[in-house]
Amino acid sequence: MAGTSEPHASAFSTAELEFLAEDEMIEIVLNLRMDTLNFIYGDFGHFRPQIPTQVPMWLAVALKRRGKCTIRSPEWMSVGKIPIEDIKDVRFHKIGTGLEIISMERTYELRLKNLSAMEGNIVRPFVTRALETFYKLGSSDMIKESDQAPNRQPQTTNRGPRRQLKDR
Questions:
Q1: How far is CA 38 from the centre of its chain?
Q2: How far is CA 89 from CA 2, 48, 84, 123, 140, in A?
Q3: Cα–Cα distance, 73 to 10 (Å, whole number)
Q4: pLDDT tens profile 134-166
Q5: What is the rounded CA–CA span in Å between residue 61 and residue 120?
Q6: 55 burial class (0-12, 13-18, 19+ CB within 10 angstroms)?
Q7: pLDDT tens string 16-49
Q8: Element containing residue 93 per DSSP (H, E)
Q9: Is the peptide bond before 8 cis (omega within 30 degrees of 0)?
C-alpha cells in the first residue's frame, strides 16, 4: 500500500492513493441476510445479520450507502491507540528538518527517507518550485547577467534644501 516501501509510492496523486486504499480489507456488520456476492475481484459472503465480515473498502462503502451495513473502524484507528496530532507533528517536523538542507547547500535533488506517499504529495509542489527557483538563481547565465548590469547609484528623494537646527 501507500505506506509501504514501494519505490514510486510518493509519485501517486491523492486520487490514486484513494483508489489503492479501496482494496484494503475492513470489517463490516450487515443488517440483513445476503447470499455470496461474486465479483471479478473475488467472492464475498455468505452474509448474516450482526455477524462481522471482512470485505474490501469499496464494497463496504457501497453497502453502507445503501444502508445495508455499518463499517467498523480498524483497531489501529481507535483514539486510544494512536495520538493523531502527535504523529502529525512528528512527521512534519521530520519533513521540515529534511527540507533544511535546501538552504544549507547547493541542491539538485531532495531525498527524504521513510516518507509516506501522502506526505510526499503535500510537500512536492513547494519543493519543486523551490528547487527550480534555486536552480535559476544559481545558474551561470543569471550570474553573468548581474555582472553586466551597470552600477547604479541608489535613488534619493528630493527633500528640498536642508535647514539648520537650533542649538538648545
A1: 35
A2: 20, 42, 9, 15, 39
A3: 26
A4: 778 776 654 455 455 555 555 555 666 676 777
A5: 27
A6: buried
A7: 888 888 999 999 999 999 999 999 988 998 899 9
A8: helix 84-104
A9: no
